[in-house]
Amino acid sequence: MERKETHASFGGVQEVWRHNAVSLGVKANFAIYLPPQAKTEKVPVLYWLSGLTCTEQNFIGKAGAQRVAAELGVAIVAPDTSPRGVEVADDDAYDLGQGAGFYINATQEPWAAHYRMYDYVVTELPALIEANFPVTQQRGIAGHSMGGFGAIMIALRNPGRYRSVSAFSPIVAPTQVPWGEKAFSAYLGPDRASWAAYDPLELVRTATERLPVLIDQGLADQFLKEQLRPQLFQAAAQNAGQELILNLRPDYDHSYYFIASFIADHLRHFVSKLG
């Protein structure tokens, strides 16, 4: 691993590291915030998954999470949103290819060679973090938009692995909205039956663990009606007996101004589930 950045922040340290990501077949960046408590003890860690077009930089520079993470004694890990490099398949559109990994394992060419963000986020990255940083195996997962989808999907697929799950403006119905249909068609192929393994609406029906899901959704979000459609997950959760905390926030849009306004609630939600 190579440390690319280090910055003192609220008594802790914000770092960015680069390493050989076996799952992705290329080098990848991740950001980690270590609170001041990590100087003397191991701390729990929240994994943050960002949205379309983002890198590891967006969250650490815009969300304002470090102050509350320092108060609560929580580490935050933010990976990139896709594999990157000249050898990695890409697309001219913002919503496919580099910057749009969707946190799934691609099975179709030319994507299958590198687009294995599911394996990277669920298995490889936590193993790396827990082996090299002062963190416990008490994990939470959260994210925004595409990353909000990733967080909910990953938590539902991995019972016992996370203590909490939360999301801002998540794509909760990827098989029924343009963003998800485009990505799943490319990465997984035309057989829609294979999409169900990553569809929160399907996963919530058969989940064996019922972590409360916290969602914050802005009502001024320009993507709300076409791409996000939280009412679909609300109905699926109700039918499945899944606890859902859905906060509909008047006037808030899809931006990091929204995330910065309520990120403290999501960090406290994680800490409340540590027991």
From TrEMBL:
Check the record and name the Gene3D superfamilies matching this protein: alpha/beta hydrolase
Q: What is the uppermost EC class here?
A: hydrolase
Give the molecular function GO annotations.
Answer: carboxylic ester hydrolase activity; S-formylglutathione hydrolase activity
Cellular component GO terms held in the UniProt record? cytosol
Q: Does the keyword Calcium apply?
A: no
Give the family from UniProt: Belongs to the esterase D family.
Q: What's its EC?
A: 3.1.2.12
Entry function: Serine hydrolase involved in the detoxification of formaldehyde.
Query: What reaction is this protein's catalytic activity?
Result: S-formylglutathione + H2O = formate + glutathione + H(+)
Question: What's one Pfam family the UniProt record gives for this protein?
Answer: Esterase
Q: Tell me the active site.
A: S145, D221, H254
What are the transmembrane regions? none
| Record protein name field | S-formylglutathione hydrolase
What are the BP-aspect GO terms? formaldehyde catabolic process
The alphabetical list of record keywords is: Hydrolase, Serine esterase
**What highest taxon heads this organism's lineage?**
Bacteria
Q: What InterPro entries does the record point to? A: AB_hydrolase_fold, Esterase-like, S-formylglutathione_hydrol
